[in-house]
Inverse folding.
């Protein structure tokens, strides 16, 4: 298993999950999905901020569970390039989805963080084949972490 350098900042604008999701857990989830050196921010926000970010940057006027903002110079990175991204989780949506799906919040958050880290590295789910590849990779990573697919 290749170890890649990781600089990780965890920010809690909304602190409701701070006691449940430890920084070491978040780091472990990020590292499990990391395939290149990375400088990442994982930020937990209230619904208002999540909605504003989704509206301003994606043109969708609602809060979503996770948004990934990648700051790499191009989509086609060279091996060894540092992945730079912000991964923003909306706590209100995460809590609501976990409850609706009868999932532990920690498991659902782990899935969303893995999902965001994969997006930061260029994975997508716009086309069916891309979605299948990304979902299979998520399932593999979550299984390696000892968590069932959420």
């Amino acid at each position: 298993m290749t170890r890649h350098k990781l600089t990780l900042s965890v920010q809690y604008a909304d602190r409701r999950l701070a006691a449940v999701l430890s920084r070491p857990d978040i780091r472990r989830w990020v590292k499990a999905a990391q395939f290149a050196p990375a400088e990442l921010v994982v930020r937990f926000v209230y619904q208002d901020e999540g909605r504003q970010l989704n509206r301003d940057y994606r043109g969708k006027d609602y809060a979503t569970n996770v948004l990934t903002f990648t700051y790499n110079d191009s989509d086609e990175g060279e091996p060894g390039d540092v992945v730079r991204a912000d991964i923003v989780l909306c706590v209100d949506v995460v809590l609501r989805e976990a409850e609706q799906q009868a999932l532990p919040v920690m498991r659902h958050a782990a899935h969303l963080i893995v999902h965001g880290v994969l997006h930061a590295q260029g994975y997508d789910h716009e086309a069916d084949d891309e979605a299948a590849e990304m979902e299979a990779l998520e399932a593999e990573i979550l299984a390696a972490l000892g968590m069932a697919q959420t």
